[in-house]
């Protein structure tokens, strides 16, 4: 079983290295030393524009100006906004699968430890990728049908991880006997609030570690049988 990747693996450069590998067939620049830094400029500009004016209103010309690259250079990496959306959503999905979903050794047979680990990893990974998760959540209206499907699948994936941990706890008699899907649906917004309302916690001086310390026992008390 693979171990979860640490949060430092989800910096923008590391993410863009992964995106370059996954989309190598559609990116016309083959040299990674040239391609990855420029791809990073494009994607970070897209995230910034999405946060400031909404991605639906963003044009490829806006993207060129914000990234400092020519329109021609932009199109050697992406053939349109839909490709950018898929790159961003793919990076978010990959982060969940490699940074949140894998269990630590002590979580395999311990549902309580597994739930704690999911909460901790979700907060830390979304802290490292705050703009990416924020974009994926709020810009779903700008997605085409396929991209919306990707976003919904990713949303349900993280909720299912929580539901499975809760179900295992119910089976062992340590969590309240209720529908684990509904319970997971109540827990998930607590984790989303961290990256959607990051400004609120920054203003209050709440660090990721402190948020984990507050949310984890709150969830456990709520689920206690």
What's the helix-strand series?
A: HHHHHHHHHHH
Helix-strand category: mainly alpha
Q: Helix proportion of residues, in percent?
A: over 70%
Q: What multimeric state do the chains show?
A: single chain
Distance from first to last alpha carbon: 30 Å
CATH superfamily of the largest domain: Tetracycline Repressor, domain 2
CATH class of the largest domain: Mainly Alpha
State the CATH architecture of the largest domain.
Orthogonal Bundle
Distinctive features:
single chain, 225 residues, mainly alpha, Tetracycline Repressor, domain 2, 11 helices, 71% helix
Describe the structure.
The chain has 225 residues and is mostly helical. It has two domains: 7-84, Arc Repressor Mutant, subunit A (Orthogonal Bundle); 104-223, Tetracycline Repressor, domain 2, CATH 1.10.357.10. 71% of the residues lie in helices and 0% in strands. It contains eleven helices and no strands. The longest helix is centred in the C-terminal third of the chain and has 27 residues, at 145-171. The protein is elongated, with a radius of gyration of 19 Å.
